[in-house]
Structure formats: structure tokens, C-alpha cells
Specification:
By secondary structure, this protein is α+β, with helices and mostly antiparallel strands. It has one domain: 2-Layer Sandwich (Alpha-Beta Plaits), CATH 3.30.70. It is built from 4 helices and 4 strands. A hairpin with a 2-residue loop joins strand 2 and strand 3. It is elongated, with a radius of gyration of 16 Å. Keywords: Signal.
Amino acid sequence: MDRVAIFLMCVLGLLAAPAAVVLSAPVTEGQVMLIVAPPWQNAQDIILRAKADSVGPKTAPFAAFAASDTPGLEARLKHAGAWAVLDGQIISQLCGA
């Protein structure tokens, strides 16, 4: 049992490091942003309410990439209902895009 617990702690530690980098990275204005939507809302609807553009052909069930030339996109996305707004560049690098 002790070996299993140690193994799980090591795996979780390895997985937590990239997540901590992504979640702590500041969002750069004028760059692509990843929005995380609550399950009861559509990510595309949040992007439209924030007067932003959807980026890329693919979306996930609760996430989508957004961009806008107008300043203040992060605040507009949060006001429109996004749970989180993350740096899209870092996410795409982690995913290999």
C-alpha cells in the first residue's frame, strides 16, 4: 500500500507542475486566450457576448480559444460568464500546436 501511495504522489506531482504554470501565467492582452465555460453555458456564446472572435476550428465541451483587437478582453470574457481565462499561447504549446 505504501508503494502505491508514493507512486500516486509522484504522478500527481508531475501532473501538477504543468497545471501550475498554466494557471499562474498572466494573460497577455492582444493574444489568443483560452476560456473555460461552466457546464450550463456554451463557450461560443460567451465569446459572442464578450464581442470577441472565436479562434480555430475546434472547441472542447467547456473551452474555446478567443481573441479580440479591442482592449479589455479578459474582463469582458469573465463578465460574460467565463469561469477562467487562460493564456492561449501556453495552452497551445503544451498541447503541441
